[in-house]
Structure prediction request, 156 residues.
Amino acid sequence: MDNISHLHRLFAYDTWANREVLASLRKLEKPPSRSVQLLGHIISAQRLWFERIEARPQTLPVWPTLSLLQCEEEAADVSKRFENYLNGKDDGSLSKKVSYTNSKGESFTSDVQDILMHAIMHSVYHRGQIAADMRAAGFKPAYTDFIHSIRQGFVG
Prediction:
């Protein structure tokens, strides 16, 4: 499997996992506010990384206050953006350098492939925090393990 195909698969998993988290939070009359905040952060950070790759200005704060409906809309949008971005690329394009300034004002340069992998891993990390937060509040979190998505046929 080439790198672009692998990244398509990982972003498909990420899209599925975010939808699973959204669905689990929507089932609750009052979802834990920290869980919703973390989901908003996941989506905002993905948008931020996409905007950095595209050399566009940041459109959302790193820690936005989003409703579940806004999370759903933003998640669908950023997922489509990454999908479209990858559709137009080949493995050679993944080594392109991207210069950016982080939220602390520090300047960095990273390869596109490292940014894309970070966007996926960052989301996994925070979905784990959401699961822990939901359990602590007495709720059952979404089961978003990668291997579960494969076993169930959600991601090819």
